[in-house]
UniProtKB/TrEMBL annotation:
Locations listed in the record: Membrane
Keyword Transmembrane helix (UniProt): yes
Principal location listed in the UniProt entry: membrane
Protein's organism: Aegilops tauschii subsp. strangulata
Family classification: Belongs to the MCTP family.
GO cellular component annotations of the record: membrane
UniProt protein name: C2 domain-containing protein
Segments passing through the bilayer: 605-632, 720-749
A Pfam family matched in the record: PRT_C
Its membrane topology: Multi-pass membrane protein
Domain C2 as annotated: residue spans: 27-145, 184-307, 344-475
Length: 777
């Protein structure tokens, strides 16, 4: 790409093209970088690509050929091809160069069901002649090699390519890492490869149910109790029940669903009658394809449409059935479908691509996953502890999964990935899992649904990263479960955030965090949580259908699907977060109280002098305040954080959490615990709620007293208050403002000898005012 100059348009750099006129797939940075493997250690592999074979001869008749690659004590095999002399496999195997145990490699052509020492032919390769290839070098062309039987006679040819490469090779994601702890077959290889996933684009589906007409019943004297049920895949919503003697029923209610492109399901709308308390009958239904939906990204009105209903099979036939329903259907492209908590958003762009034009990415974030060390053993293999770990990195619509490193408590990944950044006030999430699908007792061998185990999670907020600097740090992997907290190891990461447009980067601070539709037509908190759960389910379903499926528990952990559940530990953490955030304010109040009580006379006298200067020269108040903030910020620059935040057990209050609180946090909904445990937790929650109730009641009483002073609820108190206000109005009108402010400040900071231990007169007056606590039962 040397010699290609970046071009700029009105909104930043235009896409770069190489010398052949091909558009680059990676965004080019101002220094010419497009993202490579410069954040991780270079790891070399011996790649063996077995393409196909021809003219195979076997004296035993027909057989199902397969190729086996053997290097020292490591061996792996391709899949078998049914009864052919010219099979095509096109499989790639990778051996770590650090683990090479022999100076030659053998490729055996066997048949399915052959004995261990039986083969059709064999080809041998000297590893000293293997070439070295590093991208962007062209791919190495495979060659035909003769295979010989035990007697040294030629029995066919096999097409093989061998080369030494790195993890940057394009064959690395497809390669089977053959130097694993046990034999790797094709089924197992599909569950240990690295993979990149693209999350489908999600849309909000709005269904406005207006009315239904010409509703007829078999019993003409019946008064219908009708409601409309909307169904999209597994999402089901219903309207309120409408009772009417007329053949028309009205609701005018909105139903919101989540759908993913490409749209595969139909919307099913059914009008149902509530015959009894526990019995409902379908009057008619209609299937609506997504081609009937309008797309909008603003608040413009949607045209209503009428649909004729069809009677369900098995229902009582009604003559001249002509029931129809009126609905408004649209795909909301102006919203960002939230699949993760608002605090951990990784992308804030709306669903409609039409709203993306003119907004190029402001930067590039590159993540290097080095290695993990000190992992906890989660399974036993050959009499010792073992772990089969892999990482999943999530940002925006691009998810990246590393290969599974088998049988290692210190796995080395050394994988690098990158993402375009459109808003740097977002979060990059990396999680480490233990692969429970492989091994003798894994889900693939037993056929049982076994969940992968979360070892730990790391969140990196891009706004906390310095531009252009490589942040390298070992992050602790903390696992919290019902039995307590445990450190599962550490993960070594390298992160670099590079800006392509400094102006665009600074402009993001003045823009809304979410698309405008979230403010023009906001969704309620209940709707957001319900739609977020549905979005996570849709993503898990789509990613579970890919070639290397990403398991549902992985998606739920990365998207914080269960973050909305009640947790006593998290409630305490939030409370102490507030206390910690307000600590400077409490410290300032305490300092001022000490000044007022003359704990340090020198400081108090200095405060009196500064206060008098500011009162006499009020034009210095704001400049002094902002200059103080500026100097304080420069002073804190020396102690600025050097690494991004990571999971903190003290902030999370995970260390001090009681085991019963953790068991309650991880309990399913609805609960499956015994009645005695549920009763104890309910009583504990009632006790906590009672204390909160008293605090809220005290705040309400103070607010009501402040309002009652002007409502003549206590005539004598109101009369005294009004007379004091009149006197203060006369005094402040006659006396200069500086004199009033100076006397008020000096009175507030008067010497302790001029004070009394009893409350002041204004506090006593305020305390005696009435409030509505007398009206409570």
């Amino acid at each position: 790409m040397a010699g290609v100059l970046p071009r700029f348009g009105p909104f930043g750099p235009l896409p770069a093209y190489d010398e052949f006129g091909i558009k680059e797939t990676r965004p080019r940075l101002p220094d010419g970088r497009t993202g490579g493997y410069d954040l991780v250690e270079r790891m070399e592999y011996l790649y063996v690509r077995v393409v196909k074979a021809r003219e195979l001869k076997w004296g035993g008749g027909e057989f199902d050929p397969l190729a086996e690659v053997k290097l020292g004590s490591y061996s792996c095999a391709t899949r078998h091809i049914e009864k052919t002399a010219g099979p095509e496999w096109n499989d790639v195997f990778a051996f770590s160069r650090e683990r090479l145990q022999a100076s030659f490699l053998e490729v055996f052509v066997r048949g399915r069901g052959f004995a261990k020492d039986e083969y059709v032919g064999r080809a041998r390769f000297d590893l000293g002649d293997v070439p070295v290839r590093v991208p962007p070098d062209s791919a190495l062309a495979p060659m035909w090699h003769h295979v010989f039987d035990r007697n040294g006679e030629r029995c066919g040819e096999v097409m093989v390519a061998l080369w030494i490469g790195t993890q940057a090779d394009e064959c690395f994601p497809l390669a089977v890492h053959a130097d694993a702890a046990f034999a790797v077959d094709a089924k197992l290889a599909a569950h240990i490869r690295c993979k990149q996933y693209t999350v489908p684009r999600l849309w909000y589906v709005r269904v406005n149910v207006i009315e239904a007409r010409d509703v007829a019943f078999a019993d003409k004297a019946r008064v219908g109790e009708l409601f409309v049920r909307s169904r999209l895949s597994t999402q089901v919503l219903r309207t309120k029940t409408c009772v009417s003697r007329l053949p028309s029923y009205g609701w005018n209610e909105d139903h919101l669903f989540v759908a993913a492109e490409p749209f595969e399901d139909h919307l099913i709308i059914s009008v149902e009658d509530r015959v009894k308390v526990d019995k409902e009958e379908v009057i008619g239904h209609v299937h609506i394809p997504f081609s009937d939906f309008e797309r909008r990204w603003d608040t413009r009105p949607i045209r209503p449409r009428w649909y004729n209903l069809v009677q369900p099979e098995g229902a009582t036939k009604i003559d001249k059935f002509s029931c129809k329903v009126c609905v408004r259907l649209c795909l909301e492209g102006g919203y960002r479908v939230l699949s993760e908590p608002i605090h951990y958003l990784s992308d804030v762009r709306p669903a409609a691509r039409e709203l993306w034009h003119g907004r190029p990415p402001i930067g590039l974030v590159e993540l290097g996953i080095h290695n993990a060390f000190g992992l906890s053993a989660l399974r036993a293999r050959n009499g010792r502890g073992s772990c089969d770990a892999y990482c999943v990195a999530k940002y925006g619509s691009k998810w990246f999964r590393t290969q599974t490193v088998i049988d290692s408590l210190a796995p080395r990944f050394h994988q690098q990935c990158f993402w375009e950044v459109h808003d740097h006030c977002t979060v990059l999430t990396v999680a480490v899992f233990h692969n429970c699908q492989i091994g003798e007792k894994g889900g693939l061998a037993t056929g049982d649904p076994v969940k992968d185990v979360l070892l730990g999670k790391v969140r990196i907020r891009l706004s906390t990263l310095e531009t252009g600097r490589i942040h390298t740090h070992a992050y602790p992997l903390i696992s919290l479960h019902a039995g307590g907290i445990k450190k599962m190891g550490e993960l070594h990461l390298a992160v670099r955030f590079s800006s392509t447009s400094t102006l665009g980067l600074l402009q993001t601070y003045s823009q809304p965090h979410l698309p405008p539709m979230h403010y023009h037509c906001p969704l309620s908190v209940v709707q957001q949580e319900r739609l977020r759960r549905e979005a996570v389910a849709v993503i898990a379903h789509r990613l579970g259908r890919m070639d290397l499926p990403l398991r549902r528990e992985c998606v739920e952990h990365l998207c914080e699907a269960h973050g909305h559940r009640w947790s006593m530990r998290r409630s305490k953490a939030h409370f102490f977060r507030i206390v910690s955030a307000l600590a400077p304010l409490f410290a300032a109040i305490k300092w001022f109280v000490d000044v007022c009580h003359w704990r340090n006379p020198v400081t108090t006298v200095a405060v009196h002098i500064i206060y008098a200067m500011l009162v006499c020269c009020p034009n210095l108040i704001l400049p002094t305040f902002f200059l103080y903030k500026f100097c304080l910020g420069l002073w804190n620059y020396r102690r600025r954080p050097r690494h991004p935040w990571h999971v903190d057990t003290k902030v999370s209050h995970a260390v001090t959490a009681h085991l019963d609180e953790l068991d309650e946090e991880f309990d399913e909904f609805p609960t499956a615990r015994p009645h005695e445990v549920v009763r104890m937790r309910y009583d504990r929650l009632r006790s906590l709620g009672g204390r909160i109730q008293e605090m809220v009641g005290d705040v309400a009483s103070h607010v009501e007293r402040a309002r009652c002073v002007m409502t003549w609820r206590d005539p004598r108190a109101t009369t005294m208050y009004l007379l004091v206000c009149l006197c203060l109005a006369v005094v402040t009108f006659v006396a200069p403002f500086q004199a009033v402010a100076l006397l008020s400040g000096f009175y507030l900071m008067r010497h302790p000898s001029l004070r009394q231990r009893l409350p002041d007169v204004p506090a006593n007056f305020f305390r005696r005012l009435p409030c509505k606590v007398d009206c409570l039962l």
